[in-house]
Specification:
Length: 268
């Protein structure tokens, strides 16, 4: 066992997590291994992140006790079946697959200690929001191992597994909603005459600043909204438009839709 952590599936999320882990100094690139079926992707990840990347998953299972499953949910069963003979009881498996339950994961890898995680994509810039649930064999030490990774790239909470669908709806899928908001705010700026570059940077910094304010002050978002709305001013005109067009309702329904989809995926 020469590696500290191994990622099966070197796609978008694995790249984001590995970049975050290396940038934060938790593990060095020579302590990380990955496996990936697609040859051009193997070459890209090996060159970009400086880690060892293999075609098959057996080498990885033999090289590390800490395996991250970062393939698509529908690929999990086949991946675990392929390495079953190499999985021992001291293997810790961290699955980031949406909707795949601990019971399902434990049925595919009955000897292993398993922790189910819902991270999010901004782990690549060390600003991730994650939650996890422990499987029946996972120890507190295993949870600390996983927490060390998740806290290195952002914040994390342990939750009951039944709440991971809600986590997926809010923070797992959430970066996509935020990117849509940034894009749309930028469009508004361009409509009103700003250059695209300046409009996008102003929009992104505005979401970042608002998010930092809530996290650092602990204030209620409604109170902070009220502070921005000057009586008879510009903001309340915009807030009226957002209420008329159902921004809040759209976001609440979006979170519900993603959470319900995650729960439905878990029934398969
Ligand atoms: N994207 C996100 O923001 C988030 C994703 N997740 C979860 O993370 C997981 C990965 O998502 P994401 O990174 O977006 O997906 P990607 O499709 O980008 O990454 C998965 C990678 O695994 C490869 N792969 C497929 N089969 C195997 C195999 N047998 N062995 C090794 N590699 C294999 C895929 O190759 P190929 O494409 O050729 O099949 C692909 O490159 C998913 O389960 C998702 O639910 C969780 C939170 C956020
Ligand atoms: O869209 C998805 O299914 C994955 C899980 C959460 C974010 N992306």
């Amino acid at each position: 066992m020469t590696k500290k952590i191994g990622f099966i599936g070197a796609g978008n999320m694995a790249e984001a997590m590995i970049k975050g882990i290396i940038d934060t100094g938790l593990y060095t690139s020579d302590e990380i291994i990955a496996s990936e079926v697609y040859a051009p992707r193997r070459k890209y990840i090996a060159e970009k992140l400086g880690i060892e990347v293999h075609e098959g998953n057996e080498v990885l299972a033999k090289s590390t006790k800490f395996i991250v499953l970062s393939v698509k949910p529908q690929q999990i069963e086949e991946v675990l079946a392929g390495i079953k003979g190499h999985l021992k009881k001291d293997h810790l498996i961290m699955s980031i697959a949406a909707g795949v339950t601990l019971a399902t994961l434990e049925s595919y890898a009955p000897l292993c200690k398993i922790i189910r995680v819902m991270p999010n994509q901004p782990c690549m810039v060390l600003a991730s929001a994650s939650a996890f649930s422990r499987g029946t064999k996972a120890t507190s030490e295993d949870c600390s191992t996983v927490e060390n990774v998740l806290k290195a790239v952002g914040i994390c909470y342990e939750v009951k597994e039944s709440l991971l669908d809600a986590v997926t709806g809010v923070s797992g899928s959430g970066p996509a909603y935020a990117y849509m908001m940034i894009e749309a705010l930028s469009d508004g700026g361009v409509l009103m005459g700003l250059s695209r570059d300046v409009a996008t940077k102003l929009a992104a910094q505005t979401l970042l600043g608002a998010a930092k304010t809530i996290l650092e002050t602990g204030e209620h978002p409604g109170k902070m909204k009220d502070i921005v709305c000057s009586p008879g001013g510009t903001t309340i005109e915009a807030v009226k438009v957002l209420e008329d067009l159902g921004l809040r309702s759209a976001l609440i329904n979006a979170v519900e839709a993603a959470a319900l989809k995650s729960a439905e995926m878990g029934k398969k």
